[in-house]
Fold this sequence. Notes:
alpha/beta, 7 strands
Amino acid sequence: MPTRRIAFLLPRSGVTPIGGYKVVYEYANRLAADGYEVELVYPAYVARFQQSLLVTCLKWSKSLITFLYRKWKGYSGRQWFPLHERIKEHWVWSLVEKCVPLADVYIATAVQTSRYLERYVGILPERKYYFIQGFENWGSNTSEHVMESYRYPMRKIAIARWLVERVESCGESCALIYNGFDFDYFKREIPCSDRDKFRIAMMYHALETKGCADGFNALEMTSSEIIDKLLQMNDKDAISDLRSLFQTADLVKFAKHSPLMNENDANLISAIDFINETKEKEDENVKPQPTEITIIEKRPLRTKILLGIGIAALAAALIGSLIYIGSELYNYFA
């Protein structure tokens, strides 16, 4: 099979670990290992929805500084993820077509990046892909903006059935590919009998859609109570699979049972299928409510305001230089 070049369009740099980026990086690694040429494209500036002129100018100024800084110092996702040696990374000003490297296939990875890809004229719609990992009605994105992106003429891929249904509600088709598990990495290293039975670990995220509240509530329920709750759903096949899973879990917990590897795999698959099939759909017209942790994260607002004032003052002091630089960038990138 001839080598083909695939470009992933990311919404920004990922200087810290991000779940969605990790999924993209995993796919990039496997495609590179299969002989494809893979390009990862990070923009300094991405146009946002419904921004005032002042905010746009501040964002543009900040992006310009970031762009020049990254060009000087460099950036790579390899600082926190082991990317394949054949993968190439590109730090660009914008995701407009003339700024990105040539490729046979382009993959948008977010609502903002899909807007740019939809405008590419040098590539056919069947070579444009939209990888959907969530209903991104946060930040400047409204539910209407997200649904509009689902109507763009490109191929869609979603990681969950409820996302597929959202896309199909727009009259578009969408492929379903669940996120995979690397069992060479996610494996049992400490026998259950040697673990602290009073300690439980769970990754936490402030977004309600991550379902962390369900994890806390589950700790307060026994297996029989969970089954009784599920009986109200009248899904006999799913309940049968989960009953087997919970029985195995109780044997491990109370009788020191050691399940076989194929039992573990089967139970894990049953749990994943059940979660994907029964996940409650969020109202697309309701934005996520800020949680206590979200509020805490916004405490540095004063610092951000001072930073914005500083950037504005610097821009005013160097207005002549910025006008020149801006005009040159516009002529080159527009």
